[in-house]
Structures are given as C-alpha cells and as structure tokens.
Amino acid sequence: MAAPSLWEVLDRACNTGPVMAAKDFDMSLFRTTSRLVKEYDIKYDPTTPVPTDDSLVQDVWNAGLALFTEVGSYCLNSSRRIMFDESEIKAGLREIRGEAVIGEGSERRTLKLRGIDDNAPPSIICGGVIESNMPEGELFVKLYQSIAQEPLIDGFYVGPPLQTSEGRTVRTGTPLETHLGHSMVSWVREATRRAGRPGLHFISACSAAIANVAACDPNVGLRKSDGIVATIMPEMKTDYENLNKIVQAHDYGCVKHVYNGGMIGGWGGGPEGALVVAIANAIMATMVYKIGIGASYHALGYLRASTPNYSAFVTRPCLWGSSLGGQALSRNTKIINTVVAMTNSGPGTKMQFQEISAAIAAALPCGREGLSQGTRRFKVRPLLGSGLENRFWGELGHAMAGVKRDFANHIAEEMLIKYEHRITRDSDGGPPGHTFDEIYDLKTLQPRKRFLAVYEEAKSDLRDLGLDI
After folding, report:
1. pLDDT at position 23, please?
2. In the predicted model, what is the mean pLDDT of residues 429-440?
3. Region 454-466: what's the mean pLDDT?
4. Distance between CA atoms of residues 458 and 435, nearest Å
5. Which terminus of the chain has a smaller tally of CB atoms within 10 A, N or C?
6. What is the mean pLDDT of the chain?
7. Structure confidence at residue 308 as a pLDDT band (50, 70, 90)
8. What does the CA dihedral 374, 376, 381, 387 come to, rounded to 10 degrees?
9. What residue spans define the domains of the chain?
10. Do the beta carbons of residue 395 and residue 459 sit within 8 Å?
11. Burial annotation 350-388 (CB, 10 A radius, 16+ → b, else e)
C-alpha cells in the first residue's frame, strides 16, 4: 500500500477532513500526550542533557507515533483534521529516501543520514543568520558573503524577511513582501558570486508563500537546488500559507525544508510532552508536507520555552528533549534530521559560542545531519549576525565527528554550567551581542582581532575538555 499523495492530503486538509474547533483539537492533543507520557514512563532527567538510554529513545518514538496516529494534524484555515490510518503512516515512512542533493557545480553536495554515535563527519554544514531587522542591499550582501566565504559552510538559511522593501515597511502577505522575496534571494546570489561560490545552496524563509513563489528564478533567484522553508505550527498545525509553500516547492522542483519543534509549556505540557509532540510533528512533516519524497530535509527544531523576557532554545530541558528526539528519528526513520539552534546571546560573545557548543553536542552524536544555526531573536537590533559564528559552527561540527553520546553529554554539561544561569525568567537572557559591522572590517570582510580572540578562547575551552578542534 502506498501513502496518500500530496493531492489527497491537501483534499483532506481543505475539503474532506473532519471539522473540529481548534480549542477542541488542542485539548485532545493535551489529553492524549499526557496519557502517553505516563503510559511510556517518559521522565525528564536534568542531570543528563544528552541521554544514552536506548530503551528510552524507543519509548519516545513509540509515544510520538501513537500521538500522531490518534490525533492527526490540523489545518487552521479549514478547521479540519488531517488524519491517517496506521497502514498509511507506515507506508509514508517507508517511502522516505534518506538522501537529498543540494547546490550546483562545485558546490553540489549529497545530504545523507547519520547514525547515533556516527564516526563520519557531517555531509553538509548549513549556516545562516535568523534575523529580520537588517538593512536592504549592500550590507545584507556583505553579511551573507562573510558566511559564504567560509570553506566549511555548504549552504545557509536566509530569513525571515527584512522589515523594509524599497525603504517601505513590510507587512506579511503584502505586495511589498512579494517584491522583497525576490530581492532577498537576488542579494544572496550576489553574495555567493562575490565569495566565488555561485552554486552554493540556500533556503528562503519568507513568511508569505507568494514571496517564495516570486523568489523562484533559476537565473537570478532561487534555483531548484535551493530550498523553501515551511513550518509546522504549534502544536501539530498547518495553514494554507505553509501548504502553499509545499505545493510551490513540489511543482517548481526545489528543495523542501520543514522546521518544527515542541513548545515546553504549550499543549504538550512539560519537556516530556513537548518531546512527544516534536516526534509527532516529524511524522506530520513526512505525511502532510511530504518530507523525504524528492529533494528535502527536516529540522527537528530544538524544544523551546519562551517568556516575555527570553527565548530558551539551548537550556537543559531543551537539550535533553532535542537529543532524545534526534536519536528517536535516527533509530526509526530515514528522515534527514537537521539542527536549528537559536541562541539567547548575540554574536561576538563567549556565551554564544558556549550555546552553539552545547547545541552541537546534543545533536551530531545523536544522529542529526545538515547542521544549521541561528542567532539571537529576542531583543533584536539590526545586523546581529556574522560569518564568524558560522565558522565556529562548521569547525565544531566536523570536530564532533566520532564523538560518542557520553562524551557529548560531558561537553553539554560543562557548557551549560557556564551560561545557564543567564537564561532565567528574571535575567536578561544573555549579552545582546555585537553587530556585523562591529565584528567585521567591512573593507577586508574579515573579523576584527578582538572578536577573533573570543572565538579562539571558546575553542581553547573545548580543547581543555578533550575535544580535538
């Protein structure tokens, strides 16, 4: 038996799925997740940010699979549930290819599956800056050129959209964002050309589907070897904007990149429930968004907890859940599972390098691939991001090849001790960091000495822990 086609899935989302109020879907998800956490005896262990308990890994997978099978997913526009029976889900998981080709020419890369405690280096390193408050034009080009010129970077994430287009305020879904979608990717293509790597892969994360449609241009815009980002919304939901992105990627033939996570304190409850939801989201990405069919890869977003004062992506419970989630997907599926780790601290700071170190320790030895990173999203100011943290990301990703989970747990623990006291409800969340033009000399496009010193100090700390970087 084959899994339902994309068109059948869209029919269920738009026309035939059972109608249900959103609040009733949320309560059903909450009750089912709570029951499954107890049934599978999933318990958060704060003393082990990178667990090695294989039986727990399997329980996490079984609970997530049961959650998706029972609850399905939900389309906000139509108020319809998108349901699949057990045989359809098994067929969908069997159809996953476990491989994706990205980039062009000398920058062509084959993205492959990683195993738990894998000795191989990552097949790609994706960088980027998750930052929307950035100037248009030349400074945008130079920032991404600083990333593209890093030899260990095999591609990068671009988005969300800037706040202006032609100097005018951009609101999501407006014609100005449509124009901006095309402008952004043309600037990225210019950045990769200046770096001498015109075939470098990138993914576009415009909020509006029409902006991604406008960006698709094999000559000056988004090529078929590039990608479009679609999101699974909290919790286990989608909408027409995200489904339109999937359809555009399918029809145009470009790469699909789907991001999801579990919200600690959301409808899944605590870290245990958020983890189960994250696994269900990954299965939803396979069944609804058709990740694994054609060129595509998936980002099991770090479990996260947000308050008005900070965004916690690389705290102890988030790392615990993300580590287990990566292991569960690696052990039970062929989903190419990548990392997105938005830091609380900003670029050019010791704390950001520590957060990146903890994130990679909880990812690469746990079966994740295609590393991609983000920087601070809360308290954003213009130009927060640079090539330097991307350089660190790439070097550390390769250094972690062959590292086993127990040693990764040691690294994550040591990093957490250094910074976790900064990420609390009553703290500032960490230093806001420095802007691109502060970190880099804009004429030479090289990092300034004082920031290189911070970067070298962060690597020295890892060497002291026994990591060969």
Report:
1. 98
2. 91
3. 98
4. 19
5. N
6. 91
7. very low
8. -40
9. 108-464
10. yes
11. bbbbbbbbbbbbbbbbbbbbbbbbbbbbbbbeebbbbbb
CATH superfamily of 108-464: Monomethylamine methyltransferase MtmB (3.20.20.460)
Whole-angstrom Cα distance, residue 355 to residue 420? 9
Look up residue 1 and give its two tokens.
Answer: 């038996």
Check whether 369 has a pLDDT greater than 50. yes
pLDDT above 70 for 307: no
For 79-159, where are the alpha helices, taking DSSP H only?
A: 86-94, 138-148
Structural tokens at position 209 = 């589907």
Q: Sort 95 into a burial class: Cβ within 10 Å, 0-12 / 13-18 / 19+.
A: middle
Is the per-residue pLDDT at 378 higher than 60?
no
Question: Dihedral of CA 394/217/181/12: which sign?
Answer: negative
Q: Contact, 20 vs 74, CB < 8 A?
A: yes
Cα–Cα distance list, 463 to 112, 193, 441, 469 (Å): 28, 35, 28, 7
Residues 6+ apart with CB under 8 A from 40: 59, 60, 62, 63
Nearest residue to 469 (alpha-carbon basis) of 347, 357, 340, 369? 357
pTM score, whole prediction:
0.95
pLDDT in tens, 146-189: 999 999 999 998 987 788 899 999 998 899 999 999 999 999 99
Cα–Cα nearest to 224, from 249, 204, 246: 249
C-alpha–C-alpha distance, residues 16 and 63, integer Å? 27
Burial 105-132 (b: 16+ CB within 10 A, else e): eebebebebbebbbeebbbbbbbbbbbb
- Write the burial class of residue 99 (CB in 10 Å: 0-12 exposed, 13-18 middle, 19+ buried): middle
Burial 258-277 (b: 16+ CB within 10 A, else e): bbbbbbbebbbbbbbbbbbb
80-82, strands of its sheet edge to edge: 80-82, 73-75, 237-238
Tokens describing residue 235: 């919790």
Report the candidate in 371, 394, 452 with the shortest Cα–Cα distance to residue 152: 394
Residue pLDDT, tens place only, 247-259: 999 999 999 999 8
Question: Where does the pLDDT of residue 350 fall: very low under 50, low under 70, confident under 90, or very high at 90 and above?
Answer: very high
Whether the CB-CB separation of 33 and 65 falls below 8 Å is answered with no
CB 316 within 8 A of CB 46: yes
What mean pLDDT do residues 131-139 have? Answer: 84
Q: How far apart are CA 233 and CA 74, in angstroms?
A: 9
The label of the residue with tokens 């029919």 reads 11
Q: Above pLDDT 70, what percent of the chain?
A: 93
Whole-angstrom distance between the N-terminal and C-terminal Cα of the chain? 48
The whole-angstrom separation of Cα 288 and Cα 8 is 10
